[in-house]
Design a protein that fits this description.
Layout (H helix, E strand, L loop, with lengths): L1 H4 L13 H6 L8 E5 L5 H8 L3 E6 L2 H14 L4 E4 L11 E7 L6 H14 E12 L3 H4 L13 H7 L4 E14 L3 E13 L6
Parallel strand pairs: 1-2, 1-4, 2-3, 4-5
Antiparallel strand pairs: 5-7, 6-7
């Protein structure tokens, strides 16, 4: 399924980072170890690597990874690209931050497992950064899944990261133009939180 989705010559979501990533990247400490979840064609991981972070990008589609490697090469940055789905990722690997942008292919049970994996992988003092669609996005028809249960609410995200310090929690509408995959008026959710405890 994912190879089919990414097989076109063009980059489905463009080659520039999501507006959320461009706007919020400053929250990351210099040289952070960042895990990019289901990173697709590399637009977000390549951007963060260009800012000097040590980035690992997981993605199940080999087609998407080929395009991501080409983008990294064109930008002159290094990203550790790994072909893996979230279901089989080794969450014992430590990271300073985990980023998930529009990773809303996951129904509730899998989403809960992903968030538990993030909580395991992120070191004390580290961050989770999530950006996706709110349930009312279905009425917009400008991107995202058709399954309302896959979409984010702030209450659900707070519940999935209990005890974390919430740095940003926003539910808002905006125009986005990120390739052909995400284009037009969109109902969006941003969530950034810090895992409490002293950094290792």
């Amino acid at each position: 399924m994912w190879d089919e989705r990414y097989k076109g010559k063009d980059y489905l979501f463009g080659t520039e980072p999501a507006a959320f990533v461009a706007r919020e990247a400053g929250v990351l400490a210099p040289g952070s170890r960042v895990l990019c979840l289901a990173d697709g064609e590399g637009r977000n991981s390549v951007h963060l690597a260009g800012l000097g972070h040590r980035v690992t990008a997981m993605e199940p589609s080999g087609v998407a990874l080929d395009k991501a490697r080409a983008l990294a090469g064109a930008r002159g940055v290094v990203v550790e690209f790994r072909q893996s789905g979230v279901e089989t990722w080794d969450w014992s690997r430590p990271f300073d931050a985990a980023l998930g942008v529009f990773i809303q292919f996951a129904p509730p049970a899998l989403r809960a497992a992903i968030h538990a994996g993030i909580a395991r992988a992120v070191v004390p003092g580290g961050l989770v950064l999530l950006h996706g669609y709110a349930p009312r996005q279905i009425a917009n028809g400008t991107g995202g899944p058709r399954a309302v249960e896959n979409l984010y609410t702030l209450d659900q995200l707070r519940a999935d990261f209990p005890g974390w310090e919430v740095l940003r929690a926003a539910d808002y509408d905006a125009e986005i133009h990120e390739g052909t995959g995400h284009a037009g008026r969109s109902a969006l959710v941003d969530f950034i939180a810090r895992k409490l405890g002293a950094p290792a």
